[in-house]
Amino acid sequence: MYDPQYEEFRGRLAKLERMHRKGYGFEAPGTMGRSRYRRGLSGRIPLWRSLGTIALAVVVVKALILAQIGPISYHQRLESAAGDSVVQQVSIYIMQIDPVTEWMAGEMVRLVGLLG
Asked: In which domain, by residue range, is 107 found?
């Protein structure tokens, strides 16, 4: 006995089984299910944010070293670390004292002076 509603029902079941195999979730309309909490397009951190974080970390480390050992000793250590290789030259250039590092180190020294 042929029943068109039964055939439609079987078609919907087959569709649900295919979707289930593909990993789709089943959500009721109007609810906040899994699709609500998906990340952006790729879920990755943008390159500019990563580079900015690395640059900030380098400046903070430079300021901490400068605040700890002082500017004279810092310059002496940079001069003694200078070498002929490209890596050494680049690292010396990066570790030079810039205005932001100098200001941050001064604030760290002032803060430690207030606390101690």
From this structure: 47-115
pLDDT, tens only, 62-84: 999 999 999 999 999 999 988 88
Is 23 in the same domain as 69?
no
Q: Where are the beta strands (DSSP E) in 43-85?
A: none
Helix (H) or strand (E) holding 90: helix 86-95
Give the pLDDT confidence of 94-106 residue by residue, as tens digits. Answer: 999 999 999 999 9
**Inter-residue contact 95 to 51 (CB < 8 Å):** no
Distant-in-sequence, close-in-space partners of 59: CB < 8 Å, separation ≥ 6: 98, 100, 101, 104
Assess if residue 52 is contained within a domain.
yes
Domain presence at residue 83: yes
- In degrees and rounded to multiples of 5, residue 91 shows phi and psi of -65, -35
